[in-house]
Design goal:
Blueprint: H1 3-11, H2 15-23, E1 27-29, E2 32-33, E3 46-48, E4 51-52, E5 61-66, H3 82-85, E6 94-96, E7 104-110, H4 113-120, E8 128-134, H5 140-148, E9 150-152, E10 155-157, E11 160-162, E12 170-175, H6 182-189, E13 194-202, E14 205-206, E15 215-217, H7 220-229
Parallel strand pairs: 7-13
Antiparallel strand pairs: 1-2, 1-3, 3-4, 5-7, 5-15, 6-7, 8-12, 8-13, 9-10, 11-12, 13-14
Helix pairs in contact: 1-2
Length: 233
Amino acid sequence: MRINAFVARSTGISRRKADNLIDQARVTIGLKTAKLGDEVTSESIIKLDGKTLNLPDKATLILFNKPIGCVVSRRGQGTPTIYDLLPTKYNKLQPVGRLDKNSSGLLLLTNDGKLAQSLMHPGKKVHKIYKITLNLALTHGSEKAIMSGIKLEDGYSKLILQDFSPDRKSLTVIMHEGRNRQIRRTFAKEGYRVIELTRVKIGPFPLGKLKPGETKEATLEEITKIEKLYKIQ
């Protein structure tokens, strides 16, 4: 196994971040400083900042219904975090993407850095589905503009809009990106405020009947299926 893969799997970070740690000479193999491309075995003693790393027994992926009011971070700076709500056995898992403080719904967390990185990469086209409510009825002109693409500070945002309520204030949004507050910023460009936002599906994983604050662990079969579906090697 490559050293960056070992560091990523044992810490839950991405391989790119693992590469950075190795470049910074913070990783050792035995008594030597690790270098990119080094191969390690189950008998190798790997340390990060002097602390021994161990591979998890298996890849773990959980579904979590994030409530409104908590942040997807380890440091809430006075605000509750998802780690305040998660069972302690999941404290080392890393989130796959984000939901802002005022948003709720499905959040995936895993200890497999490569899996997380792949699911967040736009090139994998992992569809994310949201139910949102606006402060105003969405006009057909704004609907067309958002479906065609809205220019934001960090590039164009193109969303799929469907399942409108009769008053055109509530609808379903489908996207395969995940930039910071992308949905809220997209609608704001057209003069709307998103007053409710709940993510109900990521790839093949639905929120289902999970209540706010509840978790569900994906089975090995489900993890294998998603790896095959998105060609995660």
